[in-house]
């Protein structure tokens, strides 16, 4: 399987088995209620697109940095897009972060968005 969409299901967590799908290239977890991703996300070495839009993330695990094939990361409408390892991912060709009408400052990392 190369593409998995678990879009808009109000999941608060995901089964660990998802992270054993090592041939995944696209994973759409948008519009759920996820607040964390397990460190085993690093198993998805072939992942090119990751949609985490409209969840409850405040930070992401450092293992995001190990996703060397990742090109697109959508973090729109989460708490803070830059906490954790996101700012360290150097291979991204596209990153979508929140658009707010009011400027916000993350209390953890100081990032303004």
Notes on the structure:
The model has no long low-confidence stretch (mean pLDDT 79). By secondary structure, this protein is mainly β. It has a five-stranded parallel sheet, with no helix packed on it. The chain has strands spanning 3-5, 26-28, 49-51, 72-74, 94-96. The chain has a single domain, classed as Ribonuclease Inhibitor (Leucine-rich repeat, LRR (right-handed beta-alpha superhelix), Alpha-Beta Horseshoe). The chain is 0% helix and 13% strand.
In short:
By secondary structure, the protein is mainly beta. It contains no helices and 5 strands.
Strand content: 5-15%
Q: What is the N-to-C order of secondary-structure elements (H for helix, E for strand)? A: EEEEE
CATH class assignment:
Alpha Beta
Query: Which segments are poorly predicted (pLDDT under 50) over 5 or more consecutive residues?
Result: none
Biggest beta sheet summary: 5 strands, parallel
């Amino acid at each position: 399987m190369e593409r998995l969409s678990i879009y808009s299901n109000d999941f608060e967590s995901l089964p660990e088995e998802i992270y054993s799908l090592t041939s995944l290239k696209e994973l759409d977890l948008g519009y759920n209620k996820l607040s964390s991703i397990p460190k085993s996300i690093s198993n998805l070495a072939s992942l090119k697109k990751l949609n985490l839009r409209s969840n409850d993330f405040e930070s992401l695990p450092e293992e995001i940095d190990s996703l060397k094939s990742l090109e697109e990361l959508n973090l729109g409408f989460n708490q803070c897009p830059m906490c954790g390892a996101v700012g360290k991912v150097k291979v991204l060709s596209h990153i979508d972060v929140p658009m707010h009408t009011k400027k916000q400052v993350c209390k953890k990392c100081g990032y303004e968005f």
